[in-house]
Known about the structure:
The chain is α+β, with helices and mostly antiparallel strands. It folds into two domains: 3-232, Rossmann fold, CATH 3.40.50; 245-359, CATH 2.40.50.140. The chain has eight helices and 21 strands. The chain has helices at 44-52, 100-110, 119-129, 145-157, 175-192, 203-209, 227-232, 237-242, and strands at 3-12, 21-29, 33-37, 59-64, 67-71, 76-77, 85-88, 163-167, 196-200, 212-217, 220-225, 247-257, 260-264, 270-274, 284-289, 295-296, 304-314, 318-325, 328-335, 344-349, 356-359. The chain has a six-stranded mixed β-sheet, with helices on both faces. Strands 2-1-4-5-6 form a five-stranded antiparallel β-sheet, covered by helices on one side. It has a five-stranded antiparallel β-sheet with strand order 14-13-12-15-21. A hairpin with a 2-residue loop joins strand 4 and strand 5 (67-71). The protein is globular, with a radius of gyration of 24 Å. Residues 14, 20, 38, 40-46, 201 line the site of adenosine-5'-triphosphate (ATP).
Amino acid sequence: MSSALLIENLVKRFAAGKPAVDGVNFDVPAGEIVVLLGPSGCGKTTTLRCVAGLEHPTGGRISIGGRVVSEPERNLLVSPRERDIGMVFQSYAVWPHMTVRQNVAYPLKHRRGNGGGNIESKVLETLELVGLRDYADRPVTSLSGGQMQRVALARSLVYRPQLLLLDEPLSNLDAKLRIRLRDELRRILKQTGMTGLYVTHDQAEAVVLGDRIGVMREGKLLQMAPPGEIYNRPADSFVANFTGASNFLLGKVLERQGERATIDLGAAGRIEAWTPQPLSPGDRARVALRAENIRLGERGPANSFTGRVVERRYQGMQTVYDVEFGGQKLEVLELGTAARHQDGDVALTLPPDTCWAYRDEGQSAID
Ligand SMILES: Nc1ncnc2c1ncn2[C@@H]1O[C@H](COP(=O)(O)OP(=O)(O)OP(=O)(O)O)[C@@H](O)[C@H]1O
Ligand SMILES: [Mg+2]
């Protein structure tokens, strides 16, 4: 399948110092939704704006539908108008003096090459898709935030662009509406077979919407993979941490065979772990673990230890335990309303598949 979007070695530098986007490579096959996920300032919006043509890249190449739209080395830059893309932003970009229907019809009347056909039926079909058919003749300013964002979405979908770019389109909505529109957005994009590049710092949004997720940090793309792989096989300790592996155990590599490593945790003992990195014996390592993957009160076949519960926090749906383990601290999460484990000694199993070992780059002090 051809790539609807291909980004090769993209660099964008605003001023002297670190580039905002620093050698990013990825592609979006037709019909797929790729989500760029990362903390504030990591370069997500800049990447998206380079694709849109709103920002002039410093280096690299961007192709949309097999056509190069930006390649500074060759002085090549196609204007945003000629890129056949749709865009939805955080702010509801709608025409305030128009009705819902007029807003959605606008691009069909004013864009070149919209494919012709019956404008009225295209507008109604798209309003149906976003659940606003009954609102067609309302002034757009009389709508709620969520409804206005649907109008903005309909306006970008109505002319069926080759590529839809979305930059945190749900961030201005309240929490409940955000979840509803997030789930609906997935349905709408899949129903239209739209190819999309979606930017967010919200993990849940990334998981629901993305066929693949690209995690960015400081202008670099650290990992691009399906959500399940990002969550269960993080390629990098930042990816593990950013997607919720909040526990880190520090130690030294004893041995490694392929993706299996044995780590010496000192007083806590030895632990078997999975690793994506070519660790060598003697390397300092940090082992990342999700709080919900640790088993309390259970003795497993491997990585079975004894820890000590020092604190419990009941949070309604779940209970969080602070567990001391060979001089290091673990946070363990269990679903359920009752605290199952009392303060004091407790059996502890860290399933090896859920222990991910990375080279410790000195993020924290350890001998
Ligand atoms: N027009 C600009 N001039 C100078 N620096 C800029 C400009 N736009 C962005 N930057 C810088 O580039 C870096 C990346 O910004 P960008 O907006 O792409 O981040 P982001 O990942 O979208 O963050 P957020 O989640 O906060 O929206 C930041 O350090 C930012 O300050
Ligand atoms: Mg941004």
